[in-house]
Amino acid sequence: MAQDATTKWTPPERTGLAKESAFHRLRRRAPWWLLPLTVVTVLSAFIVYGIWTAFFGGKVYTAPYLSPFYSPQIWWNGPVTPALWVLPFPLLFRATCYYYRKAYYRSFFWDPPACAVGEARKKPYKGETRFPLFLSNLHRYAMYLAVIVLIFLWIDAIAAFDLNGHFYLGLGTAIMVINCIFLSAYTFGCHSVRHLIGGCVDCYSKVRGGVKRYEGWKFITKLNERHAMWAWLSLFSVVATDVYIRLVMTGIITDPHF
Amino acid sequence: MTDTAEATTDIRHTQDGRTGRTVRFSVFRGVPGAQASYVTYDVPEVEGMVVLDAIHYIQKNLDMDLACRWNCKAAKCGSCSAEVNGHPVLMCKTRVDDLPEGTVTVAPMKTFPLVKDLVTDVSRNYKVNAAITPFTPRKDEPTPWKIQQHDIERLYEFRKCIECFLCMDVCHILRNHDLHEEYYGPRYFVRMAGLEMHPMDDADRTDEIRTAGGIGFCNITKCCTDVCPEHIHITDNAIIPMKERVADRHWDPIRRMFTKKKQTANAADAAE
């Protein structure tokens, strides 16, 4: 017989070891702060760069290259830079991503800063049960929007093979294609895609196309196992692509090409 | 003792695998309600020694009153969980020569109430376990069951759990925020995932995961995965899939709309 799922119990009284006992002050040897510090530095740099690009970075286009920050080209001559129309979607996708949640909860919120260390928080902990953090549950919608943006990035990368009707293959083309590959591995290796493809199925034998879904789930799982790596690679590749095209556009470097 | 006897002893020690090095251990000693302290012991190191060996040496030779829970000494029973140098680990799986030079600190799991020295009371976990809706087999399934490999493969990982409760110990929701009544903890999301994904299980635990289980408290910091001695991907394969199932029901109106339509159609078919 199933027991009442809402049954509550009284936890045993905590005695002897006070929670903040001096005896449990951790005697760390490893520099546990190193990872949070690195994450804060890199993510902050990206945020600053993103803001600068969105508000003050101008329009980064030089035939046949279009910066990923400005793709798709929406309202190119509007009152604000075109990046502002595009950036919120991939940013929302990254902000609600399960990997980045780990990264910023640990590094920015220090909740916790590392495993088995104390926390500075004084307020009662609510996790993702309250506003605004419960909005992380909207990750799959952000994923749908990120996939749309990704389609445009692939279109741009393919279009970069064509300059005035002639085949063109420059270093910038290769960078744009690599950027799209990293972004695709990151987007399609996401936990929400993994769930929708096959993770939500209990018995593959009893659903239509179950075995195919299982195979798809296994493939996505392989990508998902390296989700953090793809997250960082794609973050760097987006910035690298933008910087490269910006440098070519301003004439600081020349694009080597065939 | 004569020179010959000393020489004999040295030879025996060498044969025992002693490295000649002495390792200093600082071990937590105390009982609830009494003065607690770290006591220092010097233990001769043996080749391949694990922390549990050192604790046994202390019990046998230096301090017979030291309490510690252990059973298999093979990282399969999950009894000897403790915090070595502040890291939640199995003492039987932590080699002394892997630890940095200097004093090795051994303490009980912080999340659970202390019984004595390195022994803690983990009975709360069994109460959580009892509260979970158990395996509920489908009624319409002919016996004996025939289960395809691809339907059951995901669940093997969850069955590896040895209930060492290191994941519960390291989880900051229980460890630092003390939300024992609001949150089941990683071990029990592994169990619930194993039940929810079971091809022959008919029960729906999605609401239980969200309400009694309190999965919303988890903020995916993956410490549970980091400490698991069985290398179960607790966060990626159990907690996040359960969060996604909760999102299916409560955060995905499009999916819910289709589910409702399907349910309405099924109800209409049944009525006819």
Strand order of the largest sheet of chain B: 2-1-5-3-4
Flag low-confidence runs of chain A.
Answer: 1-29
Mean pLDDT of chain B: 89
The CATH topology of the largest domain in chain B is given as Fumarate Reductase Iron-sulfur Protein, Chain B, domain 2
Roughly what is the average pLDDT of chain A, rounded to an integer? 83
Give me the CATH superfamily of the largest domain in chain B.
Answer: Alpha-helical ferredoxin
Total DSSP E strands of chain A: 4
- Compute the separation of the termini of chain B in Å: 98 Å
Instruction: Using the alpha-carbon principal axes, give the shape of chain A.
Output: globular
Helix content of chain A: 40-55%
What radius of gyration of chain A results from the CA coordinates?
A: 23 Å
Strand order of the largest sheet of chain A: 1-2
**Strand portion of chain A, in percent?**
under 5%
Domains of chain B, number: 2
What tags apply to this protein structure?
heterodimer; A: 258 residues; mainly alpha; two-stranded antiparallel ribbon; two-stranded antiparallel sheet; 3% strand; B: alpha+beta; Ubiquitin-like (UB roll); Fumarate Reductase Iron-sulfur Protein, Chain B, domain 2; 11 helices; 41% helix; disordered N terminus
